[in-house]
Amino acid sequence: MTALTKKRGAAESGDASIGLGLAAFIANGEDLGPIVRHAFESGKTEALLQSLRNLVKKEEVEIEDLCRVHYEEFILAVDELRAVLVDADELKGTLSGENLRLQEVASSLLLKLDELLELYSVNKNVGDALATLKICVQVTGLCHICNKDIAEAKFHAALKSLELIEKDFLQNIPLKLLKKVVQKQIPVIKLYIEKKVCNEFNEWLVYIRRTTKDIGKVLISQASLDRQKNDRIRSQQREAEECSRIGFDEHAYALDVEYIGEEETLEFDLTPVYRAHYIHMCLGLGEKFREYYYNNRVMQLNLEMQIPLTQPFLESHQHFLAQVAGFFVIEDRILRTADGLLCENQVETMWETAISKVASILEDNFSRMDAANHLLLVKDYVTLLGATMKKYGYQITPLLEVLDKNRDKYHELLLSDCRKKIDGIFAKDSYEQMVIKTENEYSMDVSAFQLEHIGIVPDFPYVAPFSSSVPDACRLVHSFIEDSVNYLSYESIMDVYDVVKRYLDKVLIEVLNDGLLNLIHGSCLDVAQAVQIAGNIAILEQSCDMFLWHAAQLCGVPRRLLDKPHSGLTARAVLKASQNAAYNGLITLANSKIDEFMLLLTSINWTAEETPEHANDYMNEVLIYLHTVVSTAQNVLPREALYKIVCDAFSHISDSIMTVFLSDRVKRFNANAVAGIDIDLQKLEEFADDKFHSTGLSELRKEMSFKDCLVEIRQLTNLLLSNQPENFMNPVIREKNFASLDHKKVSIICDKFRDAPESLFGSLSSRSTGQSARKKSLDVLKRRLKDFS
C-alpha cells in the first residue's frame, strides 16, 4: 500500500467516524451543534458536508422505499412536503439570514466566551497564586520582622516571630524551596541569638567586674554616712540628757530636718543578665544558662578573693573589701529580681566561701601589722563592710570573730604608741607652770579637759597650776579612749563601756603612771621640777573621773550610772600612790638639797669666844631654799601635800642639827656656839610661823605647825642654854619642857658641851657666878645621865 492510499484510507476512516457520529446524533434527536463545531474546529467541513450528503442519500433511499410502500400517502406527503418545502425554503431563507446574523453576533460572543473561559482559568490560577503568595508574604514578612528585630537586638521579639513561623506557617508553606530555607535558617537564627546574648552577658561580666568595686564603695560610703548620722543622733541624745540633768534646753528637742531623707537608691545595669536568662528560657536552655552564670560568677569571686602581693594590704584593703561588698549586693539583686536565675543555697555557698576567705586574709594581715592606726583603719572598713552586708541579710559572724581575736593586739599596739608619745611629752616638758595667753589656748588646754573648775574664764596671761605635759597627757588619754571606742564599736560587743574602762585603766596604769614613776625615779630633777611633777600627778589623778565620763559619753552610758559605788577607775588609786611616791621623792630631793647646806654647819666655830650676833651662813641658805620650795609648791601642790613636804623639811633640818651635835665631827662645843644655833632656830621658827599662816595651812586645823617640827632641836638648845640643866632629870619638868629629847642623845651631847670658851688664857679669865652655877648644874646633869644610862 502506497503512502497516498494510506492517507486516503485514514481520511476516509475519519470521514466515516464523522458520518457515524452525525447519524447517531440525528437518530437520537440530539443537538448537532457540538459535532458541527468539532468539524469546523478540526477542519473537516468537507467531511461533514459529505456525511450530510450521504445521510441525505440514505434517507432518500429510505424515503423511496417508504414511498413505494405508502405511495398514496407518499403523494400526499409529497404534496405536503412540497408545501413544506416552500415553507422550508422560506424558513431556510429566514434561517440563513438568522444564521448569518447569529454568526455575526456569535463570532464576537465566542471570542468573548473564549476570553471568559481563559479569564476563569487565569482567575483560578491567580487565586491559587494569591493564596500561595499570601502565605509566603506572611512568612517572609515574619522573617523580615525577625531580621529587623535581630538587627535591633530585640531578640525576644525575634524569637516570638520564629515561634509563630514554626507553629502556624512552617507546615503550610506551599513553596518547597522557601519552606526548606526557612526550616534551615530557624535553628541558625536561634543559635545566633543564643551566641549574641551570651556575648552580651560576657561583656556584662567584664563590665560588672570593673564596676563591682565602685558599687561596693558607694554602699560602704552609705554605711559610713548612716553611722555618722547615728553617732550624731547619739551625741544629740547625750547632750539632751546632760541638759536635762542641769536644766532645760529649748534646742535639745528641736527636729533636725537636715538629715531626714530617703536613702539613695543604688543603680547598676542588670539588663543583659535578665535578657540572657529570659532568652535562654525561651530557647529551652534555662538550666544551661543558670549553670553558666553560676560558674562564671564563682570564677569571678575567686579572682576577687586574690589580693595583690606587690601592694601593701593597708593600701589595697578598701579596694578588696569594696569588691566583696559590691559582688554580693549584685548577687542579692539577682536573687531577688532575676526570676530563678540563682537560688538562695547558691548565694549562701558563695558567701560562706568568700567570708571565710576574707576572715583568713584579715587574720593573716592583722597578725603582721605593727601600727595601731593601721589596724584601726582596716577594722573601720571591715565594720562598714559588715554593716553593709548585714543590711542585705548576710551573716557577718566570721568578720566579728576576727575583730574580737585582734582586740587585745590592737590595744597593745595602741598602748605601745602611747608609751612612745608619753615619753616624748615628758621629755619636752620643762616642768614649769604653763602660761596661757589666749582664751582659745585656755579652751583647748584647760576647759576641754575640765582641769579647773573655776567656772569663769580668767584674765590673760593666765598661769596654770600644771605644766604643758598635763593637757598633752589628757589629750593623749582622750585620743586613746576615742581610738578604743572606735575599735570596739561593732555589734559583737554588748557592753563596750566595760571593755573600754578596762583598757582605760590599763593605759593610765601601764603607760601614764609608769611614765610618771620613771620620771620620778629615773630623772635628774631639781626641786621646782619635782614639785611641778607632783602637782601634775595630783591633777591627773583628779582627771580620772573626767576620763571615765568621756569614755561613758562615747559609749552612750548615762552619767547617772557613773555615780554608783565601785564604778570608778582602779588607776585613780594607783595614781594616788604614785602621787605619794612623788611627794616622797620631792621630800627626798628637798632633804638632799638641805643636807648640802647643812654640811656648812660642821664648819662653824663650835668653840667661839664671843656670842654671834647674826645667824650662820648655812641657815641663810636653808631659808632661801625653803622659801623657794614653799613658794613653788604653794601654787602647784594641794595644801595637804604642801603641809607634808614642808613639815618633813623642817623635821629634817631639826634632825640634821641634832645629828651634827651627835656626830664625831663636833668634838666639843661651848655656849657661844649654842647661842649661834639658837639665833638660827629663831630665824627658822619665824620663817615657819610666817609660812604656816601665809600659805593658809593654818586653816587645815592641823595638830602640829611647821614650828612644832623643830621642837627637838629647840628643846635641846633651851636645855643647853638653861641656867639649871639638871632640871631635865625632873620628870615633871622634862615632860613639860623637854619631852622630845632622848636621854642617850642628851648624855652624848652634854659630854661635848663646855660652858666657857677654851683659850690660852681661859683659866685666868674671870667667871660670873651665874656661869659657875650653870656649870655645876650641867655637871650634875652629866653625872645623873651617866647613872641613868
TrEMBL record:
Q: What is its main location?
A: cytoplasm
UniProt-annotated location(s): Cytoplasm, Cytosol
Report the Pfam families cross-referenced here.
EXOC6_Sec15_N (PF20651), Sec15_C (PF04091)
> Which UniProt keywords are present, listed alphabetically?
Cytoplasm, Exocytosis, Transport
UniProt record, GO biological process: acceptance of pollen; Golgi to plasma membrane transport; intracellular protein transport; pollen germination; pollen tube growth; vesicle tethering involved in exocytosis
Identify the residues that the record assigns to the Exocyst complex subunit EXOC6/Sec15 C-terminal domain, covering every copy: 398-752
Coiled-coil residue spans: none
Q: Which residues form the Exocyst complex component EXOC6/Sec15 N-terminal domain?
A: 52-219
- The organism's superkingdom is given as Eukaryota
Q: Name one GO cellular component term.
A: cytosol
Q: Which PANTHER family match?
A: EXOCYST COMPLEX COMPONENT 6, SEC15
**What is this protein for, i.e. what is its function?**
Component of the exocyst complex involved in the docking of exocytic vesicles with fusion sites on the plasma membrane during regulated or polarized secretion. Involved in polarized cell growth and organ morphogenesis. During cytokinesis, involved in cell plate initiation, cell plate maturation and formation of new primary cell wall.
**Protein family:** Belongs to the SEC15 family.
Q: What is this protein called?
A: Exocyst complex component
